[in-house]
Each structure stands twice: as structure tokens, then as C-alpha cells.
Amino acid sequence: MIFIRYENWRSYLRYYPVTCLLLAANIVMFIVLTLNGGSRNGLTLLRFGAMSDIEPFAGQSWRLFTAMFLHNGFDHLFSNSFAILVFAPPLERLLGWWRYALVYLGSGLVGNLISMGVYQFSSVPHISVGASGAVYGVYGAFLYIALLQRHLMDESSRKTLYSLLIIGVIYSVLVPKINLAAHFGGLVGGFFIYGLIVRLLKRR
Predict the structure, then answer these.
(1) Which of 106, 100, 135 has its CA nearest to residue 17?
(2) Which helix H or strand E contains 169, and what residues bound it?
(3) Boundaries of each Peptidase S54 rhomboid domain copy (predicted)?
(4) Under a CB-based contact definition with an 8 Å cutoff, are residues 33 and 45 in contact?
(5) What is the tens place of the pLDDT at every residue in 146-175?
(6) Can you tell me whether residue 122 is helix, strand or coil?
(7) pTM over 0.90
(8) SS3 state of residue 52
(9) Which of 118, 149, 167, 199 could be stapled to 145 by a disulfide with Cβ–Cβ 3.0 to 4.6 Å?
(10) 138: part of which helix (H) or strand (E)?
(11) Are 67 and 51 in contact (CB under 8 A)?
């Protein structure tokens, strides 16, 4: 079962440096938001890099990146950080640190880009933050493995992945204010970015 963590904290830091950096960035930015007006304050989120279709923030492409490290409340931070902590490490070990970073960040950017493309047609002002697109990109990479590289994943891990995706879809549809477009975009992005990496940037 690849999604069960057996490492102590020292081994975790040594084996998964990018995952640790991502977790640290999320936590640090949450503290920064909390000390500057609160992580649920829309103006604070916009000031520190949230995506939005509100002028003058609309169309600022750098926000596609910065929004990945901002979270709207502790519950939002906790759910995404827990997913990164538990489910991302096997992908970092499999790909190596920089290929893994490419999947994570690339998926997050694709998810955010699709999200802004969808919500620009909405009549309701939109502000979006969170690592969910990147997290679903990790799931998308694992979905590629489960479907097309079955020898790399055991049956229990496949069942766990499928269960996560089913629960994630139901949660994204039923819970208000969830960015379904970012989740779906990240999942698709992770699937195809991983596929390109294993074909074009094979690990020696």
C-alpha cells in the first residue's frame, strides 16, 4: 500500500524535500494571511495573490501561481496539506524531485487557468485560492499509473485512489464554493503532464 506513511519525521524530510517545501510554503502563507487581516478576508487574499475576475486584479497571470499557496481558512489549509502530506510522497520518490515539482506546479497552473476561463463568464465576482488543483494533479498522475502502469501500483492502492476520486467528485459537486473547474483541470493536467514526463523525461 503506497499511501501508508511509515517514515519518521527525519526520513520524511530526507526522502521528500519538495513535498516538505510545499507544505512549509502553505503554512507560512497561512500565517502571513492570518497576521494581515485573516485568511477569510477577501481583500487580504487579493493583496497576497488570489485569483479573481474583479478589476484591477483580473488577467494578472502571476496570480495563477501564487493562488496555489493561499487558503481560505484553516479547514481549507488542513484538507489540502493532509492530502499533500499523505498522498504526494510516493510520486516524489517515483519521479525524482524536479519532475515531481513539474507535475505539481504544472497541474496547479492548468487547474487555475481552466478555473479562470470558466468563471470569467460568471455574473458573480469570483475569488479563488488553494492547492486543490495541484493536489488533484497528483491524483491525476496516480490515475495514469493505475490505468497505464499497473505494475507500479498494488491493488489496494488502486482501490484507495478510486475511492478518493469518487469522494472528491461528490464533495466538489455538493459542497458550496468548491472550485470544481480547478479540481477537474488539475486532475486532467496531472494525468497528461505525468504521461509526457514518463515518455520524454525518463528517469535514469
Answers:
(1) 100
(2) helix 155-174
(3) 59-197
(4) yes
(5) 999 999 999 999 999 999 999 998 988 888
(6) coil
(7) yes
(8) strand
(9) 149
(10) helix 132-148
(11) yes
Helix and strand numbers (H, E) in the chain are 10, 2
List residues with catalytic annotation: 132, 183
* Residue whose entry in the numeric block shows the C-alpha cell 490515475: 143
Amino acid present at 76? H
Which of 9-18, 38-47, 71-80, 194-203 comes out lowest in average pLDDT? 194-203
For the chain, percent of residues with pLDDT exceeding 90: 82
Is the pLDDT reported for residue 139 higher than 70? yes
Helix or strand holding residue 159 (H, E): helix 155-174
Residue 120 has pLDDT above 80, yes or no: no
- Work out the burial of residue 169: count CB atoms within 10 Å of its CB; fewer than 13 is exposed, 13-18 middle, 19 or more buried: middle
Q: Which amino acid is at 176?
A: P
Helix 74-87 to helix 132-148 angle (10° resolution) is: 30
